[in-house]
Amino acid sequence: MLILTKKELEQALSMQEAIEIDKQALANYSAGKTAVPLRTNLALPETDNTSLCMPAYVGGTEPALGVKIISVYPENIQKGLPSVPATMVVLDPATGIVSAILEGTYLTQLRTGAVQGAATDLLARQDAKIAALIGTGGQAATQLLAMDTVRALDEIRVYDQDLARAAEFVTQQQSKVRAKLVTASTSQVCVEGADIITSVTTAKQATFSAEWVKPGAHINGVGAFTPEMVELPAEIIQRAATIFFDTYEGVWAEAGDFIQPLQKGLIKKSDITGELGELVLGKVAGRKSKDAITIFKTVGSAVLDVAVAQAITKQALTKGLGQNITL
Ligand SMILES: NC(=O)c1ccc[n+]([C@@H]2O[C@H](COP(=O)([O-])OP(=O)(O)OC[C@H]3O[C@@H](n4cnc5c(N)ncnc54)[C@H](O)[C@@H]3O)[C@@H](O)[C@H]2O)c1
């Protein structure tokens, strides 16, 4: 059994490779070749702590099986420990035997950045030159890298409501991307004129205004994952010509961005073009014109975790990474 640290995960799989793995995983999901039971939500009585198990199987040509374990322990921060520790257990789909244990926080960041990269690659204009990133927390670095990977961008503008955090993020990340990073003083400065907009925040209200979005822009909503959370303005959802979800089931159950306007009668379920996997499979069309607005919304899926974890394990074996342990 391989034990893989965050550093080894980074060495094992590139963003470009993770993007292709995510595309195939969602194609398999939309083709009905995956098994993803509801995650087990174990709320521990007499505490504020929760432990979540997210199992999945992905079939197709590169089968993958595993379970991600994420715990939410709010008081860990006071003990100097991570409040949301995550670990991935990879099983060999041929034998059911555990083949690897991976650090799970970076895995989540990588597969989430990569799914945005997959959507941006498939939907953004080929001539996109300016991108906007709203939110510079734990998930932001891989979101930045994904946009930079799929398009030859001149500039990525970065905004966070915590301006100092945004400025520090720009300093830390500049050497990791090709585009010039610029700290934006407001969300408007960040978004106006951008060809690609990615919001990855914990916001409960839209993080930008629909009026600032230029024709032809592609927008990714990555942050909102509960019915109370919102990042995308309802007006831009109404204006969009093409809207894709990672999974219908996940977004309609969890994302306030879409649940709230649906409840207010501002949008209909039929306004959604399809799942990204259907676009990968060629079952539905993507961008309709140069000036059309396209949107991708993701809340995440365990199929992305197991597919990327399986690919990392395979590459780590080839590259001789990790510690091998026999139980
Ligand atoms: N789609 C997925 O698969 C997926 C996967 C992992 C995490 N997430 C979600 O992504 C979100 C971001 O995760 P994170 O780990 O980076 O969170 P984080 O708490 O580390 O950072 C969130 C950042 O958003 C900023 N922010 C909040 N509201 C804002 C606003 N209105 N305008 C600008 N900035 C604002 C905060 O200042 C903070 O810097 C969370 O909601 C998380 O649950 C989604």
Give an account of the 3D structure.
With 327 residues, the chain is an alpha/beta fold. 35% of the residues lie in helices and 22% in strands. The strands form 2 sheets. Strands 1, 2, 3, 4, 5, 6, 7 and 16 form an 8-stranded mixed sheet that branches. Helix 5 (163-173) links the parallel strand 9 and strand 10 (180-183). Helix 2 (15-30) packs across helix 11 (302-319). It is globular. The protein starts with a strand and ends with a strand. The model has no long low-confidence stretch (mean pLDDT 97).
Please specify the SSE layout and strand pairing.
Elements: E1 2-4, H1 6-12, H2 15-30, E2 34-35, E3 40-43, E4 50-58, E5 64-72, E6 86-91, E7 98-103, H3 104-123, E8 130-134, H4 140-150, E9 155-159, H5 163-173, E10 180-183, H6 187-191, E11 196-199, E12 218-221, H7 234-239, E13 242-245, H8 248-254, H9 256-263, E14 274-275, H10 276-280, E15 294-297, H11 302-319, E16 323-324
Parallel strand pairs: 1-7, 8-9, 8-11, 9-10, 11-12, 12-15, 13-14, 13-15
Antiparallel strand pairs: 1-16, 2-4, 3-4, 4-5, 5-6, 6-7
Helix pairs in contact: 1-11, 2-3, 2-11, 3-4, 3-11
The structure holds nicotinamide-adenine-dinucleotide.
The chain-level mean pLDDT equals 97
Please summarize the sheet with the most strands: 8 strands, mixed
What's the number of extended β-strand segments? 16
SSE order, one letter for each helix or strand: EHHEEEEEEHEHEHEHEEHEHHEHEHE
In terms of quaternary structure, the protein is single chain
List of distinct ligands in this structure: nicotinamide-adenine-dinucleotide
